[in-house]
């Protein structure tokens, strides 16, 4: 990425190191959408791979849970370093808060996917996609206001 300096001739408080690409994306909302797409791709790849490898040897809900756990571990650094650019909390505290938010969506998947698969006959990955569609706006609001809020703001 290209490093940029912001500031004026009258202002000696210029800010070095802010990636120009992130600024060009318009901040949190765009980088959050990118992160959401990345998260969905990682999750679908893990879930799809799990479904291919184990076939019917393991219940698909087990794969939903394992895929979720692995995805959260993989994507948390991106959310912390790029989307919300730190929160003032330690990595562990931030991760635990991030995971608590993720648990609500895991619960939605564990309830919604079987309903769609078993009752409506929808394929597993399609059903999971349907459950996920509503999650980005809610997740953004919770992450922005609770998980990655500045330490002094309550």
Provide the structure class. mainly alpha
| Element-level helix/strand string | EEHHHHHH
Cα-atom Rg, whole angstroms? 19 Å
Strand runs, count = 2
Domain count: the total is 1
Q: Shape, please?
A: elongated
InterPro entries: GtrA_DPMS_TM
Subcellular location: Membrane
Membrane topology: Multi-pass membrane protein
Main location: membrane
Protein described:
The protein is mainly alpha-helical and 154 residues long. The chain has one domain (27-147). It has six helices and two strands; from the N terminus they run E-E-H-H-H-H-H-H. The protein has helices at residues 20-24, 28-54, 60-83, 91-119, 124-132, 135-147; strands at residues 3-6, 15-19. A two-stranded antiparallel ribbon has the order 1-2. Strand 1 and strand 2 form a beta hairpin. The longest helix has 29 residues, at 91-119. It is elongated. It starts with a strand and ends in a 7-residue tail after the last helix. Residues 32-148 form the GtrA/DPMS transmembrane domain. InterPro entries: GtrA_DPMS_TM (IPR007267). Keywords: Membrane, Transmembrane, Transmembrane helix.
Secondary structure layout plus pairing:
Elements: E1 3-6, E2 15-19, H1 20-24, H2 28-54, H3 60-83, H4 91-119, H5 124-132, H6 135-147
Antiparallel strand pairs: 1-2
Name the descriptors.
154 residues; disordered N terminus; mainly alpha
Summarize the structure.
The chain is mainly alpha-helical. It has one domain.
């Amino acid at each position: 990425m290209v490093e940029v300096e912001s500031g004026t001739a009258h202002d000696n408080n210029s800010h070095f190191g802010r990636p120009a690409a992130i600024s060009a994306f318009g901040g949190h909302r765009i980088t959050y959408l990118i992160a959401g797409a990345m998260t969905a791709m990682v999750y679908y790849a893990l879930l799809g791979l799990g479904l291919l490898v184990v076939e019917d040897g393991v219940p698909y809900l087990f794969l939903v849970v394992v895929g979720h756990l692995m995805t959260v571990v993989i994507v948390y650094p991106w959310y912390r370093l790029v989307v919300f650019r730190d929160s003032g909390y330690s990595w562990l505290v931030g991760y635990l808060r991030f995971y608590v938010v993720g648990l609500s969506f895991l619960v939605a998947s564990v309830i919604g996917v079987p309903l769609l698969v078993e009752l409506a006959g929808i394929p597993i990955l399609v059903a999971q996609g349907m459950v996920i569609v509503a999650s980005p706006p809610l997740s953004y609001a919770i992450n922005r206001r609770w998980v990655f809020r500045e330490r002094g703001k309550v």
